Amino acid sequence: MNQPDPYGLPDENIEKSILASRGKIVIAVGIFIMAMIYLGFNAFQGASSYYLTIGELIDQGSEAHDKNVRVNGNLVPASFKRQDDATLLEFTITDGEHSIYAKYKGIVPDLFFNEHSEILLEGKYSANGIFNAHSIIVKCPSKYQGEGNPA
Q1: Virtual torsion, Cα 112, 66, 128, 79, nearest 10 deg
Q2: Is residue 144 part of a domain?
Q3: How far apart are CA 131 and CA 90, in angstroms?
Q4: Is the domain of 92 the same as that of 37?
Q5: What is the spatial distance between Cα 100 and Cα 15, in angstroms, rounded to a whole number?
Q6: Cβ contact 95:54 at 8 Å
Q7: What is the mean pLDDT of each run of 10 residues along the chain (151 residues)?
Q8: Cα(first)–Cα(last) distance of the chain, in Å?
Q9: Domain coverage including residue 109
């Protein structure tokens, strides 16, 4: 009555195949998790940038060259240059003590560049002392700011 199934596996082989398939699943899940951690780490490293003042950027010297950084400063009056119908902008920003020459290729409305413009640049500082920006944010001065110091 209890005849072995001619097409089935013996009981001991069934247990071994279940363990073997579980082991494969655990290994596959482990490899997947490690791959996601690796990809996430690399994506974070590429997207991160250090925020530096202009003085800190200059003080770092060659350490800061060709690294993605953010720099904040005020536009130096009369330093903004753009040829008619051109997208290459050249200007100088300062933190009050130090200044850097910057280039940006892209479209920026004319209204944003005036003597009160505060500019946040993201890009790379080259060995020749030029900051090559790939992203620019121009902060407008607040119309609600007082002109003098409060008493």
Answers
A1: 10
A2: no
A3: 10
A4: no
A5: 71
A6: yes
A7: 58 60 83 90 67 82 80 84 78 87 80 71 87 83 55 45
A8: 104
A9: 50-139
> What pLDDT does residue 45 have?
63
Q: In this structure, are 79 and 93 located in the same domain?
A: yes
In sequence order, the 6+-apart residues with CB closer than 8 A to the CB of 137 are: 119, 120
Residue 44 falls within a domain, yes or no? yes
User: Rounded to whole angstroms, how far apart are CA atoms 49 and 68?
Assistant: 5
Secondary-structure percent of the chain, ordered helix, strand, coil, rounded to 5: 35, 30, 35
Q: Which two tokens stand for residue 73?
A: 């400063």
Q: What's at 3, amino acid-wise?
A: Q
Copy the structure tokens of residue 94.
């300062």
* Integer Cα distance of 8 and 16 in angstroms: 14
Is position 5 within any domain? no
- 81 domain-assigned: yes
Q: The whole model's pTM is what?
A: 0.60
Take residue 79 and report the two structure tokens written for it.
């330093």
Looking at the structure of the chain, the number of domains it has is 2
Within the chain, how many helices (H) and strands (E) appear? Answer: 2, 6
